[in-house]
Amino acid sequence: MDSVEYKCPNCNADLKFSPATQRLECEYCESSFTVEEIKQICAAAENSIPPETLQAQQDFESHTNLYHCKSCGAEIMADDQQTATFCYYCHNPVILSGKMSGSYKPSKVIGFRLTRENAENAFKQWIKGRMFAPTDFKSQQQIEKITGLYVPFWLADCNIDVDYRGEGRKSRSWTSGDYRYTETSIYRLIRSGTVVTQGIPADGESKIEDALMEAIEPYDYNELKDFSMSYLSGFFADKYDVDKATVFPRIRERASKACLDILKDSISGYSADTPNQNNINFRSTDWHYILLPVWFMSYKYKGKVYEFAINGQTGKLAGTPPLSKGKLAAFCAAIGGIITILGTIGGGMMA
């Protein structure tokens, strides 16, 4: 008899049967299901792929080139009308390594709203007040390295079972004669149900810092469109190298926080509340692989890579500029010289 292997509905890792709990458990994301639950979830997902989806994947394979950077390992996608010559991350040359697999075709995309001119002007405005940044960092040659890049993101819609048990306290105090009285009433708090979180993002690119991508959020997902190769015209796109199983802990953390916020908002009117039990169980997760627009630039200085990014839809920007110790030292020396001169003049006048 052939064995049956089930995948975790949340992170797609293998599920293993636990004799201790009599449940199918995921060692990777710690999700847990009864055998009947996982059968129902798998049965609902066994729909055939529509012919139009297969055709779209074939078109993607035919018209998408993959470029590989031998220096840092980055992999860049571009349509067959665009040629990538340098790596957006380390600025070294890239080589054409082949065509893309249809499995890497995104389902949705948000197109660029900011033009290159918009992005360059935003960078110039941002760097204007950074007087200790290296001169080369502000140069036109460096600014021209700003790249219009579609960054791969996973969007997760999570179905979460929540079970909360706790105690709420209400206190009132009053004075009678020479005595002060306090009455405390204790209430049992129960919150149980299913929470659905939609559109929780996590980028699927290991080369770009997660904190940088989170800093330029949010995107307006109402502008998501079905993916078309035309969106890549004139731009580049990253091939994702972080899969669903790897990003799920970040998704789980953000979704769990959203659940806790909902629970907190539902409990009011108490002077204090104490949780006794707080179970959050991810029943299933629906994934969407999408591309989001980012104007991106990296700069290597003193052996460290500094990154700068602009949300290509909203214009929100983030980054940390490098610090030129030479400029800082010169500035401190100039201030010290001015203080010395003022002190000398002041001393002469006193005399």
Protein architecture, described:
With 351 residues, the protein is of the alpha+beta class. The protein folds into three domains: 1-47; 58-320, no CATH class; 323-350. The protein is built from seven helices and 14 strands. The protein has helices at 35-45, 51-63, 116-128, 140-143, 210-215, 244-266, 325-350, and strands at 15-18, 23-26, 32-33, 64-68, 75-79, 95-99, 108-109, 147-176, 179-203, 225-226, 236-238, 272-301, 304-311, 317-319. The strands form two sheets. Strands 4, 5, 6, 7, 8, 9, 10, 11, 12, 13 and 14 form an eleven-stranded mixed sheet that branches. A three-stranded antiparallel sheet has the order 1-2-3. The longest helix is centred in the last third of the chain and has 26 residues, at 325-350. It is globular and about 80 Å long. The termini are far apart. 26% of the residues are buried. The model has no long low-confidence stretch (mean pLDDT 80).
Helix-residue proportion: 25-40%
Count of individual domains: 3
Give a count of the beta strands, DSSP E runs of length 2 or more: 14
Strand-residue proportion: 35-45%
Low-confidence stretches: none
What profile does the largest beta sheet have? 11 strands, mixed
Q: Which secondary-structure class do the elements indicate?
A: alpha+beta
Mean pLDDT across every amino acid position: 80
Compressed to H and E, one letter per element, the order equals: EEEHHEEEEHHEEHEEHEEEH
- Please report the distance between the alpha carbons of the first and last residues: 105 Å
Please report the number of helical segments. 7
How large, in whole angstroms, is the Cα Rg?
Answer: 28 Å
What is the global morphology? globular
